[in-house]
Amino acid sequence: MEKILVVGATGAGKSTLARAVGERLGVPYHEMDTLYFTGPDWTVNEALTDDVLRLTSEPRWIIDSIGSPEVRDLLWEKADTVLWLDYARRVIMPRVLRRSLRRTVTRERIFGGNRETWAGWLSREHPAWWAWSQHAGRRSEIERRIREPRFAPLAAHRFARPDDTAAWLATLG
């Protein structure tokens, strides 16, 4: 495990797991949302592909994302391991709702200095809406990718419950 993708639905805990695995294995962790959003008003990084190419050319890395469409294949082709948080909606929705509520109330700055807002809750781009609407599609895409012959060399670990993930993480020492 040197080049690791942590994948799953919004709110599954990808960043938390990626950070923990990175610390335990001494693998540099890169947050995809920070790479993707680089400025105010959710400005998208125009150099994303170049940045991801640079990061994935390193001998060791961990990224917390299936990858945005423009870098998805690149990430999957360069990875040697996929950690899939395949949690049910009943697990992820309370998580994403608590996180978004906390971020909105505290006006916490996130990617590119942006903040979640009360008005943002009405948008289909809001994490809560996104997590709900994209859950089934994301699960199907990850499953399809793991079964694709070109990604057969990947070591894939699929976790259906947070307890399974925690037990596996404990084995990393």
UniProtKB/TrEMBL annotation:
The record's annotation in InterPro entries points to: ATPase_AAA_core, Cytidylate_Kinase-2, P-loop_NTPase
**ATPase AAA-type core domain: from which residue to which, for each copy?**
4-57
User: What domain of life?
Assistant: Bacteria
* PANTHER family assigned to the protein according to its UniProt record, in alphabetical order: TOXIN, YALI0E33011P
Q: What is this protein called?
A: AAA family ATPase
